[in-house]
Amino acid sequence: MARRLESGKSYARAERVLSIEIEPGRVDAEIQGSRYEPYRVGLAVAAFTAEQWQEAVKALASQALFSAKLLAGEMPENIEEAFSSVGLSLFPSSPAELTMECSCPDAVVPCKHIAAAHFVLAEKLDGDPFLLFRWRGLSREGLLRQLRQQRAAEASGRTVEDAANRPLEDSIRDYWKVGESFESLSFSVGPPAVNASLLKRLGVPGFWKPHPEIRGSLERLYAKVTERAMALAYSGRSSGAPDDSDESD
User: Fold this and answer.
1) 110 with 209, same domain?
2) Whole-prediction pTM value?
3) Is the pLDDT of residue 235 over 90?
């Protein structure tokens, strides 16, 4: 098995995986082997049903942090918690859940071509984790649409079905009204979980190279901005805060 995995990694690095397509419940790939015709690899996993996705979206919408990150185009690191809470798992939890096949003459599964497809699939999921949702049966756009609908329904005190079937005239009449759950809405102000996360995520751009200290300077500046925001949130106007009559910017 170790030799097959190593051969599969070599195939992936040599760009012998000619194509890979992720569809609901299936991944199809073409791998160039020793023969002229490329081998066809298939990786199948059960796609979630509409009812299962509905429960999963409810679990995601109930967590403000999950919803905020997903709607911002980020994948929460512990998103599996939301799926496990409704008895689901994004990744196959056992080998029995994953069906693997290859058109090569090797009878052993996984062969090196299947291993190569796994390595390239992992790279694609690392670059766009939302493809994992597509593999499980729901596109990124579909997930975000359902998530917005669920959040809007919860905010208005209605179910998703009621909100979707509500007459347009009623929606217009209530457009400017405050929702029933608005009074229970609360906010908390706190420092970010990761300081200067955007800088760390983007890395060091080329124009920073002549100024090696700029990253440290910006991180210190962000820390001071956080400190000032916390002071304003919990201590009222700080002594150094500008007055409304202060014309300086």
Assistant:
1) no
2) 0.60
3) no
